């Protein structure tokens, strides 16, 4: 895929922990970096979670523990194997993902030893919310390891300007950079067919508007609050559809929550949907909602924009700050549910043509800012700085 978009001509190694599909957006971003830059992915793996079968990934089993945390220090065996891998790959750039684990200090030491530049990609790890739990350990880690690791990096790469702003309470060096992650644009020509198929499959009439939540059933993403806001909005002709898999909350928990509020006729819980069917679900919808507490990028929001859907986004969606002036939906200024209620009500009564215009503006912004070609161009500019 990378070559189709003009892969950057450099040898690169991406370094992470536990490269496994179960880790969602972080793994998707690592994959996108590898697709854009070429080279391979080095994963220090705990041998527990299901692994990816991608040929680009080289796994090293690392089961060390320290103070109850995984991988604070890498074992000597793992370090030797990783050093040999780097020697064999002979990269010109190292890109290390996430914080608070042993791969960070190992990268800094390896880069210094081999005279290789490296980028640090925090993936939201410097968000103030992250320091609200285990804060003493993380502050200690920053003093002992993190500050030097970030300072010595050629670049500290954030997915949005909002992520960089929030990180400034911990680190705000001159080497911080913002590069939006990429998203594949959904094929809008399939929308009519997808709309008919999805509605027939789930028993939704053509004259109902679909407001879609797509994400794990997890408290962080606030599906219960989304249902509450929808219930309080008391709108006619709108079906709230929540697509996602169990994670902290189960589908059965949400179904009971919906039934208790007599919302079974207007709220649909599909469970997880994958692949082409997931794309069809996006294309079949009329709007997208995320009241998530924290999304330092938000791939589903980006996909919703690519599907030309007007969006309702909480303050926790960092992408909302990037598109607030694009008139492509409703970007809320707080987590107050009354704001979400008002946005759902306005979505329900906005003329179809106006909703379509909102969606088109979001799609155009997505094409301009979140394409793989733009991602590659941004990384190339970053590399030559």
Describe this structure in words.
The chain has 385 residues and is of the alpha/beta class. It has 14 helices and 15 strands. Helix 5 (161-167) links the parallel strand 8 and strand 9 (176-178). It is elongated. The mean pLDDT is 91.
Key terms:
385 residues; alpha/beta; 7-stranded parallel sheet; 14 helices; 15 strands; 43% helix
The N- to C-terminal Cα distance equals: 25 Å
Average per-residue pLDDT, rounded, comes to 91
Overall structural class, as computed from helix and strand content, comes to alpha/beta
Strand percentage, roughly? 15-25%
Secondary-structure element order, as H and E? EHEEEEHEHEHEHEHEHEHEHEHEHEHHH
CA-atom Rg in angstroms: 22 Å
The dominant shape is elongated
Number of strands: 15
Total of helices: 14
Strand order of the largest sheet: 3-2-1-6-7-8-9
Q: Which oligomerization state do the chains in this entry correspond to?
A: single chain
- Report the biggest beta sheet as strand number plus sense, adding barrel if it closes: 7 strands, parallel
Give the uncertain stretches in residue-range form. none
How helix-rich are the residues, as a percent range?
40-55%
Short description:
With 385 residues, this protein is α/β, with parallel strands linked by helices. Helices cover 43% and strands 17% of the residues. It has 14 helices and 15 strands.
